[in-house]
Amino acid sequence: MTGAAHPDFRALARIGAAVRERLSADPSVRRFPEERIELYAVESFLGADECDRLIGMIDAVACPSSLIDDKDWPDYRTSCSSDIDVWDDTVRGIDARLAALTGLPATSGESAQGQRYQCGQYFQEHCDWFDTSAGYWPREKRSGGQRSWTAMIYLNSVDEGGTTDFTRIRLSVPPLAGCLLLWNNAQADGTPNPWSMHAARPVVRGVKYVVTKWFRARAWR
Ligand SMILES: O=C(O)CCC(=O)C(=O)O
Ligand SMILES: [Fe+2]
Fold first, then answer.
1. For residue 210, how far is its CA from the centre of ligand 1 (angstroms)?
2. Taking ligand 2, which is a single-atom ion, which protein residues have CB atoms under 5 Å away?
3. Residues 6 or more apart from 91 whose CB is under 8 A from it?
4. Domain 9-216 CATH class label
């Protein structure tokens, strides 16, 4: 294995080990019983007031989601998304709590992104790590490199549909208000984890709101 094939793999292996150790010592964190991906949940990570506030912020700024490569995939992600105000007190509080929970430096986190899925909206199967052979990679390489962990918080519970499905391991997670999902996009050796493939299934009844934050191997800028 070479660094050229898997940029940032040494850093990602180191980050993975540090976060794993920290999460395994934290009684508020539950690991899903699955060897192929490190996937964790923290219930009640956000309180109802914080969720309501974030939902209001997303409604105020939501616009159709962009994909990094959206020209070729017009129907890949039909939700509405937005970078939410990074200076907002609630958002800063979440950033600080995520850093304290995971030990990941706040500087490695991309700006939190809010997403709203209305009835019928979805995000098809994908992995959050970057394809380092894609045209966008040189830009992402400069701006913090490969993604390490994903933190995603459900802001509401959905009447029907809207599950986050890890398709290759056949694990389906229903939205639960205030619950944080955390997963490592890399394997223990720091290479991308193909088992991290996931999709947001269509909302059947209700509306779904989430906040997602992706962390990088290096400082994000
Ligand atoms: O909304 C979800 O359940 C998944 C969202 C997601 O995969 C992403 O934003 O990368
Ligand atoms: Fe994703």
1. 8
2. 128
3. 54, 57, 84, 85, 112
4. mainly beta
Q: What is the ipTM of this complex?
A: 0.99
Q: How many residues can be counted in the chain?
A: 221
pLDDT digits (tens, 9 = 90+) for 30-42: 999 999 999 999 9
Integer Cα distance of 219 and 221 in angstroms = 7
Contact 102, 19 (CB under 8 A): yes
Q: Could you tell me the pTM of the whole model?
A: 0.94
Q: Which residues of 33-47 are buried (b: 16+ CB within 10 A; e: fewer)?
A: eeeebbbbbbeebbe
pLDDT tens for residues 140-181?
999 999 999 999 999 999 999 999 999 999 999 999 999 999
Q: Is 124 in the pocket of ligand 1 (CB under 6 A)?
A: no
**Residue 164 CA, closest ligand 1 atom number:** 3
Collect all residues with Cβ–Cβ distance below 8 Å to 175 and sequence separation of at least 6: 154, 156, 157, 158, 162, 163, 164, 208, 210
The token pair at 29 is 């964190």
Q: Could you tell which of 113, 115, 203, 207 is best to mutate to test the pocket of ligand 1, judged by most ligand atoms within 8 Å of the CB?
A: 115
Q: What is the largest CA-CA distance in the chain?
A: 47
Distance (angstroms) between ligand 1 centre and the Cα of 212 equals 7
Q: Rounded distance, CA 94 to CA 134, Å? A: 32
Centre of ligand 1 from the C-alpha of residue 26, in Å: 25
